[in-house]
């Protein structure tokens, strides 16, 4: 593979100047790696499939617009009328009411009277598609009531921004991301699937000025074409298939061309290959050019576009630099999405109606809370908890006489208000003060005041991530509060010391259980410094030294290693509690006491050591071209369990793993044969999501699942496929089923053409190969008791 270090400068120039090869001679992936192919002109939206009616209406409205009116649709304006992150003005004369664009990750951000839902990673850990859908539906209802037309999420991307992302696996990410899109858009709110694409690190996320006053570009994610399709584009494809009306392009560069002016990713992948009918919006301030961005497929600049578009854009059209048809297409895509979701209906609340400009000042309350959302909030919180260790019958707790509680993460944060200030100006999110921090040996003490290295939220329990993913609900059920309530009911004594240096140890030995709460923080704008911290690990071991029944609960905003205490025999149970939202404590206590059963599964691999990961974070190296930071994705498709399989590395807890209070048994695997002579490549028409026959079911896998224990519980049946010549196995199906004690259920998984295909770089198509495909079914990526073979013989 040609090193990007050799290509970097030339490629950067290529992207700036917009020059490129007119003809392609693609023989391998090196054609794409590190240099973004030019793809012009920008394809006009076609209004395929169920977009046809919206396109007809949009074309009729846009035809009545003046040049200026069309232009005004392409960028946001500043206003003090509401507190929306992005505001698109109305065109009253034509009945267009304008748009409010607002974050997103856990619910409506920076306002009051909204719920705080489980985060993306928590949804990932639940492996529950219908729950993901319902969470989207209720969340969408709140966006709608608040007068938000575009909800700035979900985040889909294999590693993505860990605070709001769903999973490291594209299949899981795509399936749950698509369910979220359907839920939110079911309420008529447009989803903004983000961040397109390969936005895998925060370091150098935006261009900066260095100490020598030189401009340093944002990071370039350098990805080959196969990896782009099979890993990074995959979940976006699912979200588009699910109908997303908007895509947000990202801060980073992709193969050395800015993601918001990258003709290959926007014109090529998104608008041609995936037939996107909706519009592309920038991440905030991610626009870097006027003419080039428009030609490359950008449709809307946020939060404003004055510096590159605005009046400059009408000039560019007048002087022929950009054809007016491109502006017409931009406007049509935006208005079509608005019509498609029914936002023209008078019942749709006016933009920003529930989004006060300053939520700390007196304002009109728009209450979007409903009782109906409560079961989904609670179930969502329950199901994202993953039990990974449970020895000596530690759990469930059985009416303990005395429990001791430790750790900074047990109690409610000192501050929990939707005051806007903490949300907007405090990168730590609500109430997470970076002030008190102590780091172990991962980084030296000298960096204590350097915010880039913080990895613990000391100020209280972590229920959401920071930055644009943060929001606050009507209340926060902190673990310690919920434990106290349960103690009241059970006549249990609770003692606690949540200080950073617990001295109360007296009754530890007499405790039936000692609960230690720690966390792993993450926020937009900062990469996590590491996958564990010594401070928290020492706290666990300190308690475990005296308490023989130490139960560790970790609120982790990303993968968290546990090897400094996992084998300590006094650490009897470990729970990855992720980011449960406002029902955190209540859900946890139900699980700890066995009122609910654990059913969450890891949406990532937990390694024994950080060095076991190929690259834990894509914190791009500064290459010899220091002004053009590069992050080479040389691991290709071998991320997470694919990498562990390839190199035969034993993880601490594998992808897909999670314990329950009951046991399950898999049997009776059946794989339906694929008819001989199936075409190797899809031949269907392109609609939103790509060639329509990519979604045809090619084979069906069925198996029987039995609950062999004495408690009711839910198991996630997982199907992995070994495609010839590909990673040993890849997740290609999952289903979460609730089964009573002693009961059984049949699980059935349709495998689509895409599920069984690999990306053919030369043909530029998904290809079904001739050969034998291994089919595995089981309860995790390494616990796969059922195996069969599927033979495919294509017509070519
Ligand atoms: C974030 C986006 C967010 C936007 C608007 C950006 O900094 O990267 O995820 O949607 O701000 O708040």
| Helix content class | 10-25%
N-to-C CA distance:
29 Å
What binds here, in terms of ligands, is: beta-D-glucopyranose
Please report which band the strand proportion falls in: under 5%, 5-15%, 15-25%, 25-35%, 35-45% or over 45%.
15-25%
Structural class: alpha/beta
Task: Give the CATH class of the largest domain.
Answer: Alpha Beta
Main sheet properties = 6 strands, mixed
Using only C-alpha atoms, the radius of gyration works out to: 26 Å
Name given to the CATH homologous superfamily of the largest domain: Glycoside hydrolase, family 3, N-terminal domain
Low-confidence stretches: 1-24, 420-453
**Count of beta strands:** 29
As laid out across the biggest beta sheet, the strand order is 1-2-3-4-8-11
By CATH, the topology of the largest domain is TIM Barrel
In round numbers, the mean pLDDT is 89
Number of domains: 3
Structural shape: globular
The assigned CATH architecture of the largest domain is Alpha-Beta Barrel
User: What's the total helix number?
Assistant: 19
Domain Fibronectin type III-like: 715-781
Keywords: Carbohydrate metabolism, Cellulose degradation, Glycoprotein, Glycosidase, Hydrolase, Polysaccharide degradation, Secreted, Signal
InterPro entries: Cellulose_deg_GH3, Fn3-like, GH, Glyco_hydro_3_C, Glyco_hydro_3_C_sf, Glyco_hydro_3_N, Glyco_hydro_3_N_sf, Ig-like_fold
Enzyme class: hydrolase
